[in-house]
Amino acid sequence: MNKTKSRNTVIITICIASALICIALTFWGNWKNNGVLTTDAFIGVMATFIGICATIIVGVQIVNHLEIRNIRKSITAIEEERNSLNYEKEAFSVEMYNTRLSIGNALALLALTAQKNNDFNIEFTSWVHSIIIDDWNSMKGSALLNRYKRLIELSNILVPVSDKVFLEEAYKALSVIVVPKEIEHYNEIMSLHYKLLTDIKKSIQTTPNSNDN
Fold this sequence. Notes:
rod-shaped; mainly alpha; 6 helices
């Protein structure tokens, strides 16, 4: 805004200066010719003044056109950069989603392997973290319900005999799980979720620290 105002001031100053110079030269030329100011001389002054003003205006329009073209180029470049960033963001989101699914599947596979080997600690931890990692907005609630049912079975085995550190880590991990309200079997899942938290919390409160023994 200040740049445009300054440029307009310069243009007006140039026009006024040009007009004054033309008038001065005309009077000076006529003064040399016995000081007679003829109609032809006046028309000549006005024509010269109009020509100068027209030249300045055309020049200004050319400059404005060049500036507008540069602004359009800048806007186009910004739009292209924004589209590129949006594309990269979408690609990153897809990659992160696929990565989450891969990790969730790996944890589920680890839990099943631990189940076959009767390694209940690893199985319990793997199921909990698979629930945290997987995207339940796009997965079936029946799968989540089955995992919670298995966690209840494991908690009946592990909670009474586990040390306080394991119980606290399990409670902390379960506490960060967010189950979408739109998922099928939501009420049943949340009932099992709170049962797990309640049972583990009670056990934490009654289990002594390992360094107390």
